[in-house]
Structures are given as structure tokens and as C-alpha cells.
Design a protein that fits this description.
Elements: E1 2-3, E2 19-22, E3 25-31, E4 39-43, E5 48-53, H1 59-68, H2 70-78, E6 91-94, E7 97-103, E8 111-115, E9 118-123, H3 127-156, E10 163-167, E11 174-177, E12 182-186, H4 194-206, H5 215-225, H6 229-244
Parallel strand pairs: 3-5, 7-9, 10-12
Antiparallel strand pairs: 1-4, 2-3, 4-5, 6-7, 8-9, 11-12
Helix pairs in contact: 3-4, 4-5
């Protein structure tokens, strides 16, 4: 993350959460009261830069800083993995391995099949209907796998298995609400290798014990899966590619 404390002229019309056109580049404005200075980060999942300021008063400073770094922002956004939708004949990652997409006549639901050439997902429908069936299958598989891994980790800690839901958040892989006994995950974890999905499940189950990211929390994660650092590094390196799947 680039950091600097500039003193450019102030402007008006900037608000927390606003999307600004920065010479053709999308720039999201964000206020973080804990920030000590203005900064820029790249949100590859959304395909936009984020200018962070410690207060709304400093948002113009953050925009000016982003403008001075427009070449860097453009370079990072250009490196964003491109999505390709769900087209028959293409492949999608499933548990870390490429799976071919095939089209069948009619409106049959998508299903995973074992063919002489390897695993494939076959589905009826065309266009958006075809894509919707493919994604629905991936979501069903994600819910099943995540519910299983969550239950295993909860049992290890002698906890009641929480309710599991899935969604498609842009900024997190899972979220835990201990008071409600529920965990919500990104369905895109089914695209990652199984050990990555298992790590996220362990991470969220550990939040049922410790709501923060204290040493005690990471101690619970290590008890469940051992060294978590390789899995966190994998998500940092490949997370944007998972978010690009299915997005034309």
C-alpha cells in the first residue's frame, strides 16, 4: 500500500463511498477513522482503486494523491485477471483443478460428470440461463463442502455446528456472527484448492471462540489446521482470479 501525506488544494463534492472518475480510472473514496494518513489500495475484486482518508475533510487530499499515482493505478488495474463468463467449451476451476464446461440440449440442470477426458460440467440452457445453471451448481457444491468442513472444525472445539450460508462478497471470504451462531462464506471458495476452503472454514469457526484476531485466535486456527500462513498467502496471490470467474 502506498502512503503519503500531501498538502494539495482542497476541493468539494467528495463523500465517503463515492465513486470518482480519475481520468477514466474508477476511484472509490473511503474514510477510515483509524488511518493516520491518506493512502491508496487496489480492489481487484471490484476492479477499482480505493483512496483512503482518516476523515471526510481529507478526502480531497486522497483524491489528489491518487491523481499523482494514476500511472501506477492504471498499471495495477490492467493486471487484473480477466473474466470470461461461462461459455461452453471453456473451463472453470473447481477445487483447484480446471473443469470443462459442456452444453447439452434442453433445459437440464448443471451436473458434474466424469468423462474419458476428465471431469466436466454439463448443463442445458443458453446464454444467461446456461450461466445461471453453472453457477447454481457451484454454489450448491460450495454450501455442501463448507457446511461439512465447518461442522468438523466445530466438533473439534466441542462447539455446536453453526448455521452456514453463502454469498458473493467482494472483500471477504467469510464472516462469523457468534451471537447468532452463524457463518457466511463466499461461494467462490469451491473454486480454490480444498485446503484453502478448509482454512477459511477453520478461520471462521475460530471466531466462535475469539471474535478478534488476537494471538489466542490464531492459536485456535493453528490447533485446527496447523500453519495457516501458506493458505493466507495463496488467497492474497490468487483471490482476484477467483473473483474474476464467471464475470464477462
Amino acid at each position: 500500500m502506498l502512503r503519503l501525506t500531501p498538502s494539495p488544494p482542497r476541493g468539494e463534492g467528495f463523500g465517503n463511498g463515492s465513486l470518482v472518475d480519475l481520468d477514466g480510472l474508477p476511484l472509490r473514496l473511503s474514510v477510515n477513522r483509524r488511518a493516520r494518513r491518506v493512502s491508496i489500495r487496489i480492489d481487484l475484486a471490484r476492479g477499482e482503486a480505493v483512496a483512503v482518508a482518516p476523515s471526510e475533510r481529507r478526502l480531497p487530499d486522497a483524491v489528489a494523491f491518487a491523481r499523482s499515482k494514476s500511472d501506477w493505478i492504471a498499471e495495477r488495474l490492467a493486471a487484473r485477471p480477466a473474466g470470461g463468463g461461462y461459455a461452453p467449451g471453456s473451463t472453470v476451476p473447481l477445487e483447484g483443478a480446471p473443469v470443462r464446461l459442456e452444453q447439452t440440449p434442453g433445459a437440464a440442470a448443471a451436473r458434474l460428470v466424469d468423462t474419458p477426458s476428465g471431469l466436466a460440467i454439463r448443463s442445458g440452457g443458453e446464454g444467461e440461463a446456461y450461466a445461471r445453471r453453472i453457477e447454481n451448481l457451484l454454489k450448491r457444491m460450495a454450501r455442501e463442502r463448507l457446511a461439512h468442513h465447518t461442522g468438523v472444525h466445530a466438533a473439534t472445539l466441542n462447539l455446536k455446528a453453526p448455521r452456514v450460508g453463502i454469498g458473493d462478497p467482494k472483500s471477504r471470504w467469510g464472516s462469523c456472527t457468534p451471537g447468532r451462531g452463524s457463518i457466511r462464506y463466499s461461494w467462490r471458495l469451491i473454486l480454490a484448492p480444498p485446503e484453502i476452503l478448509d482454512y477459511v472454514a477453520a478461520h471462521e469457526v475460530a471466531h466462535l471462540v475469539h471474535a478478534d484476531h488476537s494471538p489466542a485466535f490464531w492459536g485456535v486456527v493453528e490447533r485446527l489446521i496447523g500453519d495457516h500462513r501458506p493458505y493466507r498467502a495463496w488467497l492474497r496471490a490468487h483471490g482476484a482470479s477467483l473473483h474474476a470467474v464467471g464475470r464477462a
